[in-house]
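anyone seen this seq b4? input:
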Amino acid sequence: MNDKNTPPETPQSETYSDRPLRFSIPGRHARGRAVRIEESLADILSAHAYPPAIEALLTEAVTLAALLGSLLKDVGGELTMQAQTEAGAVTLLVCDYRDGQLRGYAQYDEARVAELPPEPTLFGLFGKGFLAITFDRKQQSADEPGGRYQGIVPLEGASLAEACEYYFAQSEQIPTLIRTARGIVGGRAVAGGFLVQHLAEGEDGRERLHVRLDHPEWEHVRALAETIKPEELAHPGLPLEELVWRLFHEEREVRIEQGIGLSKGCRCDPDHIRSVIGRFPRDERREMADEAGDITVDCEFCSRKFPISVASLDN
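predicted toks r here
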């Protein structure tokens, strides 16, 4: 616990990006996450030459994946976020998180995107669509079973962050505030995200806090969190610990914990691809092959192609 009148000390040489921060405020039944991504974001965006509007959208989506993914406590757990529509300028947006590894990809209509204003609305990008968020928790032990659960909500609001807030309110009944920001520092994109939630006490015979969106504890925490500034979120020189301290330094106790470092983590492993293709019958593999005798697998996430020789699979 930090003294409420003393900001946390952080070495000046420490890197403040690509590592999430977990925090909780026990006296307010609140928990939160803060992230700032730079290196991993650059690696993800460099795989495709996205137009500015799509790059900004994917940046927000990757930031949200980092925030929501950091809610997972178990090793091997996975968070997948997918936004999709059939009639929008953006037809598919997918990001996922697993053990600190992020990846993301956007599919869009180039002609329609070119007609969009410089800062299009969420509806302008997608039209009527939906957002699906899936948490896949791996079983850790007999006492800690895993499980996969998914919530689907309309793509509504001014941003993807608002759509995610709606997901938590509708699918999990957890009051949630989410903020994201994007900045350019030294010609490079930097993104930041902040999430805070109000959790139930979970005690028998007592009111479950999460069913009350107007609970005074949550209203207090939300009011403080809403003072966060975009330039603070996307400032690579501002430690996340200091950011949380600025918001909640008057609270009696704020607990902080470093999360797993973030990095780009595509799963297009050639050996895995070979093993998957090898499961097809020999005749089907030959039908899939091109004139050179190769089955080429495209990875949309990292924009790489993997030619697999049919002859090598037959041996």
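The chain has two domains: 21-264, 270-314. The chain has eleven helices and 13 strands. kinda curious what u guys think
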